[in-house]
Amino acid sequence: xxxxxxxxxxxxxxYGNPASIHWAGRKAKAxxxxxxxxxxxxxxxxxxxxxxxxxxxxxxxxxxxxxxYFHAVQAGKRFHLITSAVEHEATLETARFLESLGARAYxxxxxxxxxxxxxxxxNLLASLATDPxxxxxxxLMAANNETGVVFPIRRIGKKxxxxxxxxxxxxxxxxxxxxxxxxxxxxxAQLVSFSAHKIGGPKGIGALYIQxxxxxxxxxxxxxxxxxxRAGTQNVAGIVGFGKxxxxxxxxxxxxxKELRDYLEAEVERLVPDVRIxxxxxPRLVNTSNLLFRGVRGDSLLMSLDLEGIAVSTGxxxxxxxxxxxxxxxxxxxxxxxAKSAIRISLGAQNTRAEVDHFLSVLPQLVERIRAK
Length: 373
Ligand code: PLP
Fold this sequence. Notes:
By secondary structure, the protein is of the alpha/beta class. It contains twelve helices and ten strands. It has helices spanning 23-42, 57-74, 89-100, 118-128, 153-162, 184-187, 236-247, 251-271, 298-307, 327-331, 336-339, 353-372; strands spanning 51-54, 78-84, 104-108, 134-141, 166-170, 191-195, 206-210, 275-277, 288-293, 342-346. Strands 1-7-6-5-4-2-3 form a seven-stranded mixed beta sheet, with helices on both faces. The protein has a three-stranded antiparallel beta sheet with strand order 8-9-10. The protein is globular, with a radius of gyration of 22 Å. The relative contact order is 0.13. The structure holds pyridoxal-5'-phosphate. Residues 56-58, 61, 88, 90, 141, 145, 170, 172-173, 195, 206, 317-318 line the site of pyridoxal-5'-phosphate.
């Protein structure tokens, strides 16, 4: 394709391929560089060179875990993956896939409040550390996508350091919704997965933080992009959108979401009998409410709320459309019926008190009607 120098042709700004060295390519590359810097600043990443853009949060998790696995295999080590039973499918299914290749995977249990046993983790790390042939990776989410329950990431990071295990954090759900913003530096992780759409950025763009010097085998081969760590022409528009969303993160919005969520939960408990809020005793994201209405099918309530123009989820959004009980609630010790009786409400920065009041005005009758059937 031949195109001409157009110094102020703003319509052409997005045309260039960031791998090209002509002016249009350089413009696209500069836009990517700017986004990388904004993301590094927003998430406590020491150097923007440690960020690799991916096609989604799911791809970032796959790149971290499979990349570490293939590196361990190349080094002639035995690969062990410690994760939890409440992770997103991106981690759970990757763990099962790696098991099929010969890795060992361990799924830590959680209690009724969604917290894992740090003693169980430490015992496992200690026993695996006794054999120098083992290569151990711990992969845990900073916050759960169904309940909002937050794991003590820094404490876990310290344990991983003590036992020389590699630490991957799935921070997809946590960014922008923690009272103290998520920081890669504080997490002590060597690998961290991100996704733009969870902070109002475009869908289909994610990132993996890879600590400087860490060796991973790339998931994609075929080009020198992303410092040879992820081949393929970058999604320039997605990356720019991700950078903008990261730059626009505002702690005041986080505080406002928490106020609205607390109001919603207090009112739900006042207005509807027999409701349980999951993870209420644990540290939680500011915007997530997992409500279990006994005797109510979550998918029936979801459809009734949908008719009122209110969008909620049952289980994880990524599993919607199926009526399987939530694997997160099952792991927390709820039975199958209970695990089908919950809905998840995720508030966004744009949600208003009037919208929450509309939800509260219709919810009691809808729950009553479904219970009466
Ligand atoms: N990890 C968690 C905790 C998530 O909640 C999600 C998506 O909801 C993902 C990973 C996957 O991210 P993406 O939708 O960008 O593939």
